[in-house]
Amino acid sequence: MNKKHIGSSVFETIKEWEKDPVFRKAVDEHVEKAKLAKMLKDIRKQENISQLQLAEKANVTQSVIARIETGTSKTLPRLDLFNRILHSVGYETLIVARKKGRTIQVTLAA
After folding, report:
1. 47 CB contacts (<8 Å, ≥6 apart)?
2. Structural element, H or E, at residue 90
3. Whole-angstrom Cα distance, residue 25 to residue 107?
4. Which of 41, 49, 59, 87 could make an S-S bridge to 53, C-beta 3.0–4.6 Å?
């Protein structure tokens, strides 16, 4: 009798899904949202402020901060919004592009 480990079929299915560009894009976006969520939450905790306090400083609602921090937004936060939130507590937003030893960096204005 040929018994397969139950987990092996799950991993095989995931490997097949990874070949699908729509699935891959969704996974990549989820990972990016999680990175931004962690960054914002870490900054807020470093500044020792609540979501509401950060929202007031950035002139957004508390639910905007919560959606970014929990990753429940359907899309990544807009760059201008994320930049405004970071600037409201004194952080600069840097965008860095790297390619084969070349680096280009810009700092976004408030």
Report:
1. 54, 89
2. none
3. 27
4. 49
Asked if pLDDT for residue 38 goes beyond 80, the answer is: yes
Q: How far is CA 107 from the centre of its chain?
A: 19
Task: With beta carbons less than 8 A apart as the criterion, state whether 76 and 85 touch.
Answer: no
- What is the residue range of 67's domain? 7-108
| Claim: this prediction has a pTM higher than 0.85 | no
Could you write out the three-class secondary structure of the chain?
CCCCCHHHHHHHHHHHHHCCHHHHHHHHHHHHHHHHHHHHHHHHHHCCCCHHHHHHHHCCCHHHHHHHHHCCCCCCCCHHHHHHHHHHCCCCEEEEEEECCEEEEEEECC
Evaluate whether residue 1 is within a structural domain: no
